[in-house]
């Protein structure tokens, strides 16, 4: 009886093991999908709150607030959302990530987001040309980070992308980013910024999941060999650590600015 059970268990595991050349069908963890949207919304809201103070009254750039806005949008709203959403993406083979490409995607997301917000802000005065350029760059930046993150995947599969769906994902990202940036720089109330953040988070998440739909994973014999990789619970911890540390740093900068402004007001009195 014991022998039969062991044999049955072995046969079931063997049957679950994907065959060479088989198309892998993904499944998603609904809770992590929802959490990925929430973290994207949080990053977008922080970014839009910081973006309103990127330019001083004389039109000069506040570098500290610009970095905070870029880190919020790129590091939390886009990068953290992507890798949290990738944890929701389940295949029948284990998935790890190339550490170098993963880190590079974080840097690219922050840099491109900063430039996009700078262009959209247009030195504190809304301009259509700056808004269009910023929207285009923001949308492309989301896509660059997304596909860099996808190519960082290390697993027993070859990824084939559907070009039509890839183009659709890019259009979604640019269109939704343009709507969010217009709301962010034309509406001043906090409620309006919350709405803009909801739209921007929707842009990032829509682009991500449409982009994932464009990917077909074909099983191979072995995963490519890479020098450094991360996966499983270590990736979870890394995502939460990046989002948490960036949030703390941003609050520290914003709180410092607020205290300095209060001291200045008291001095002028």
UniProtKB/TrEMBL annotation:
Membrane-crossing residue ranges in chain numbering: 30-51, 63-89, 95-119, 131-153, 165-187, 194-214, 234-255
InterPro entries for the chain: MHYT_dom
Keyword Protein biosynthesis: no
Protein name according to UniProt: MHYT domain-containing protein
Residues spanning the signal sequence: none
This protein's GO CC annotations: membrane
Keywords of this entry: Membrane, Transmembrane, Transmembrane helix
Span of domain MHYT: 28-218
């Amino acid at each position: 009886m014991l022998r039969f059970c062991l044999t049955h268990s072995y046969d079931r595991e063997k049957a679950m093991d994907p065959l060479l050349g088989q198309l892998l069908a993904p499944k998603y963890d609904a809770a992590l999908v929802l959490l990925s949207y929430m973290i994207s919304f949080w990053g977008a809201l922080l970014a839009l709150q910081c973006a309103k103070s990127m330019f001083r009254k004389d039109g000069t750039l506040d570098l500290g607030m610009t970095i905070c806005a870029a880190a919020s949008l790129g590091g939390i709203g886009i990068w953290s959302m992507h890798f949290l959403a990738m944890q929701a993406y389940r295949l029948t083979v284990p998935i790890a990530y190339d550490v170098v490409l993963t880190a590079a995607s974080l840097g690219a997301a922050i840099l491109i987001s900063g430039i996009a917000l700078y262009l959209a802000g247009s030195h504190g005065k809304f301009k259509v040309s700056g808004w269009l350029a910023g929207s285009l760059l923001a949308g492309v930046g989301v896509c660059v980070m997304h596909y860099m993150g996808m190519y960082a995947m290390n697993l027993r599969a070859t990824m084939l992308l559907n070009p039509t769906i890839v183009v659709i994902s890019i259009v979604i990202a640019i269109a939704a980013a343009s709507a969010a940036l217009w709301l962010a720089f034309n509406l001043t109330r906090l409620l309006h910024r919350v709405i803009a953040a909801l739209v921007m988070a929707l842009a990032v998440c829509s682009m991500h999941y449409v982009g994932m739909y464009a990917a077909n994973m074909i099983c191979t014999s072995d995963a490519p060999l890479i020098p450094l990789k991360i996966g499983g619970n270590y990736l979870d911890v890394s995502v939460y650590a990046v989002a948490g540390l960036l949030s703390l740093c941003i609050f520290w900068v914003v709180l410092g600015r607020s205290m300095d402004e209060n001291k200045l007001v008291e001095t002028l009195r």
